[in-house]
Amino acid sequence: MAHRPVPQADDGGQQDAVRRRPRLNQAAVLRAGVVLADAVGIDGFTMRTLAQELGVAPMALYKHVANKQELLDGMVDLVWAEVTEPDAARGWKPALRERAVSLRNGLVRHRWAVGLMEAHGRPGLENLKQHNALLGCLRESGFSFRTAVHVTSLLDAYIYGFALQQKTLSFETPEESGQAAAATRDGIPDDAAARYPYLLEVVGELAAEGYDYDVEFETGLDVLLDGIDALRASWRNG
Amino acid sequence: MAHRPVPQADDGGQQDAVRRRPRLNQAAVLRAGVVLADAVGIDGFTMRTLAQELGVAPMALYKHVANKQELLDGMVDLVWAEVTEPDAARGWKPALRERAVSLRNGLVRHRWAVGLMEAHGRPGLENLKQHNALLGCLRESGFSFRTAVHVTSLLDAYIYGFALQQKTLSFETPEESGQAAAATRDGIPDDAAARYPYLLEVVGELAAEGYDYDVEFETGLDVLLDGIDALRASWRNG
DNA sequence: ACCTGAACACCGTTCAAGT
DNA sequence: ACCTGAACACCGTTCAAGT
């Protein structure tokens, strides 16, 4: 191996950890993209701000990603990499439940991702791996091919949709949700209030009792899993 | 009323129907926005292209909407206006089913809408009216307050998520879906193919049999409705 | 009251150039 | 091989004018 001129002591290639600006590479760009998008949201996420965060000229990024769309696709695949794969050995129901909670947690940690998950680009390798594991869990548990497709479609739609609902309602805790509900109620004009009695009832109750997204998600998830269980037999030949 | 100089014969205020460019108003701007977004998608939808479509300078729009976000909020509310309201008199299950299909149809007609439905802005009046009707249908059918919230959350999450999955997969018919699946399969590298056997099985089967979104949606919807039915009693006191 | 034109502060991205 | 600076064709939006 040729000896190269380095201004620092040889540390076995680990010198990047200390250096102010390590040499850029695609993985570093994608990771920084996830961190930035988490911090500022998808609207504030621009090639220029990401470059600034990395201490680099905007055009330097284009040496490592073809364009912004490919950058976003790569970031989405990093989110997929965080999701627990279902393991048929644990039983299909606990395995699917765990995966669903894990996927939702990923979408909550990275709120910008849900709008890009099914984006136009080719699915990433982690996405393929994840769905292969999901389908494998179902097939190995005795689900028919068609049923496995139904279950995948049903569960993922629920998870995506729930994350989408939660993404844009900006409160996190039950207390915050109560305050938000109160604000919404107070924001409704008086004449409208009279026209939407049922809505007002719910908003008022939620303002008093709060709303827990985690509980709500898992309540719905259990309805789905029980529904899948109940109809498993009748779908066997479908 | 002062007599004004008009280059056309007096037609009792109905002259707009014939004129090339009728006087702009907010409703006309919103309607044109929906048509344009349907045609070009949300990426191609800009204030400038909408103004051009209306034969007007870009800044003319700002006399009728405060900014782009408010314009989008108004467009979303026009989509809500297309959704059938559930009628408890028909029985809660058929009523909810019809509303779910109607909402999904609206989201398919206007694919740009799903990403904006739960957007940060204040919900529109049609949105409020729609959710008031949904909650009213459930309460009048004997659902408890808490259960009505669960059901609303569950159903809407599924509908949104399904529309989101469908939005970005660009094929419409079962035949197209088969072709798309074949393309995806052929796009997977050989070594990856060996690593994702279950995924390949599904993609291959779908390429052969096709995939019908309408059937898939209603299959999952019936699982949800049956699950809600089954657990209705146990939720009574929840 | 409604519409326009020029301008500003941003975007993503191309290109030629630097080391 | 990797990074930079200037430039281009776009955005949404402000402002001062026009009628």
UniProtKB/TrEMBL annotation, chains A, B:
<dbReference type="InterPro" id="IPR009057">
    <property type="entry name" value="Homeodomain-like_sf"/>
</dbReference>
<dbReference type="InterPro" id="IPR003012">
    <property type="entry name" value="Tet_transcr_reg_TetR"/>
</dbReference>
<protein>
    <submittedName>
        <fullName>Tetracycline repressor protein class A from transposon 1721</fullName>
    </submittedName>
</protein>
<feature type="DNA-binding region" description="H-T-H motif">
    <location>
        <begin position="46"/>
        <end position="65"/>
    </location>
</feature>
<dbReference type="InterPro" id="IPR050109">
    <property type="entry name" value="HTH-type_TetR-like_transc_reg"/>
</dbReference>
<dbReference type="GO" id="GO:0046677">
    <property type="term" value="P:response to antibiotic"/>
</dbReference>
<keyword id="KW-0805">Transcription regulation</keyword>
<feature type="domain" description="HTH tetR-type">
    <location>
        <begin position="23"/>
        <end position="83"/>
    </location>
</feature>
<feature type="region of interest" description="Disordered">
    <location>
        <begin position="1"/>
        <end position="20"/>
    </location>
</feature>
<keyword id="KW-0678">Repressor</keyword>
<dbReference type="GO" id="GO:0000976">
    <property type="term" value="F:transcription cis-regulatory region binding"/>
</dbReference>
<dbReference type="Pfam" id="PF02909">
    <property type="entry name" value="TetR_C_1"/>
</dbReference>
<dbReference type="InterPro" id="IPR036271">
    <property type="entry name" value="Tet_transcr_reg_TetR-rel_C_sf"/>
</dbReference>
<dbReference type="InterPro" id="IPR004111">
    <property type="entry name" value="Repressor_TetR_C"/>
</dbReference>
<dbReference type="Pfam" id="PF00440">
    <property type="entry name" value="TetR_N"/>
</dbReference>
<dbReference type="GO" id="GO:0003700">
    <property type="term" value="F:DNA-binding transcription factor activity"/>
</dbReference>
<dbReference type="InterPro" id="IPR001647">
    <property type="entry name" value="HTH_TetR"/>
</dbReference>
<dbReference type="GO" id="GO:0045892">
    <property type="term" value="P:negative regulation of DNA-templated transcription"/>
</dbReference>
<keyword id="KW-0238">DNA-binding</keyword>
<keyword id="KW-0804">Transcription</keyword>
